Amino acid sequence: MNKTEIQSSNRVPSSLAQVGTIMKYTFLDYLRSRRFFILLTLNFIISALITVLVGYYRPQSFLLNSLSFYSSWWGNGATFVTILGGIFFGGDAISGEFQNRTGYFGVPNPIRRSSIYIGKWLAAFIAATVIFLIYAAITVGNGIYYFGLNIPIEFGESLLFAWFYLATVMGFTFFFSSMFKNSSISILITAILFLFVFSLIETLVSILVKIEPWFILTYGAGIISSVLTVPYPEHVHTQTFGQQITLTTYTAFISEGLAIMAVYFIVTAALGLLLFERKEFT
After folding, report:
1. Using an 8 Å Cβ cutoff, are 147 and 85 in contact?
2. Which of 39, 106, 248, 258 has its Cα between 20 and 30 A from that of 55?
3. Where are the domains of the chain?
4. Distance CA 69, CA 75 (A)
5. Residue 266 pLDDT > 80, yes or no?
6. Three-class DSSP labels, the chain
7. Span 105-123, mean pLDDT?
8. What is the pTM of this model?
9. How far apart are alpha carbons 150 and 164 in whole angstroms?
10. Contact between residue 265 and residue 171 where contact means Cβ atoms under 8 Å apart
């Protein structure tokens, strides 16, 4: 082996090559993992139950027209499937490096931590996207069965918004996964925040304080279902019950919702990477 070949063999792969390698093998691990099959099974069970219930009971809210069908099916289930994907694949992506001690073997090698973080994020995002698209395909399949190829453009917009929300959820889960060295804690906190806390704070701020909850992620994600309503819901809607009770609800504009999700994604993803860069394997 000549000097040039020795130098070539000792050359550290570029950051892009490192990201690609980590993404590839992490994604393959996800596909072979039990969590992927569990989430896939849950996806099919939820879809099958809705399919059977709609086919048997024929609810008017689903079958009024094409838009009402996609609004009822996709608008109610997309965010839930998105959150599950983020929790299942991102909840322990970084904390597992500490808890399972796999990071002790990878980090000492000439591999940038940023490459590990980005590669794992991309793998988790792609794996969650597979589940996400399967749910979308089942939705479209049922829609075609009832209404033919009359797929409203609003569904396409909602699909893109939900995919963007998936990226935001994944950034958020990676942030908490980088914060804690225990996978159970990072997964539990993420699940509680997305399934309960954010929605509760949004409701309390809107109803009790009567201000727009523009700082809550789930408020911005509301555009996923709102875009399936024609005409688009009013930004501020006030209902009066009796003479003293007034209920005020808020709906984010599409541009506002996208901006909220973008800010959450950028901030949480950057903070998660910063925490991972500085955390020591001891």
Report:
1. no
2. 39
3. 13-278
4. 9
5. yes
6. CCHHHHHHHHCCCCHHHHHHHHHHHHHHHHHHCHHHHHHHHHHHHHHHHHHHHHHHHCCHHHHCCHHHHHHHHHHHHHHHHHHHHHHHHHCCCCHHHHHCCCHHHHCCCCCCHHHHHHHHHHHHHHHHHHHHHHHHHHHHHHHHHHHCCCCCHHHHHHHHHHHHHHHHHHHHHHHHHHHCCCHHHHHHHHHHHHHHHHHHHHHHHHHHHCCCCCCCHHHHHCHHHHCCCCCCCCCEEEEEECCCEEEEEECCCHHHHHHHHHHHHHHHHHHHHHHHHHCCCC
7. 78
8. 0.89
9. 24
10. yes
The residue count of the chain comes to 282
- Token readout for 277 is 């860069």
Assess whether pLDDT exceeds 90 at residue 91: no
Structure tokens belonging to residue 125: 């995002």
- Residue-wise pLDDT for 235-258, tens only, equals 998 877 766 677 788 999 999 999
d(C-alpha 235, C-alpha 229), whole Å: 13
Q: For CA atoms 182, 185, 189, 191, give the dihedral sign.
A: positive
CA distance 90 to 194: 13
Beta-bridge mates of residue 236: 250
What is d(CA 178, CA 168) in angstroms, rounded to the nearest whole number?
15
Extract the tokens encoding 38: 């569990």
Collect all residues with Cβ–Cβ distance below 8 Å to 212 and sequence separation of at least 6. Answer: 206, 219, 236, 250
CA 20 and chain centroid, separation? 22
Residue whose token pair is 């590990």: 116
Query: Which amino acid type is present at position 64?
Result: L
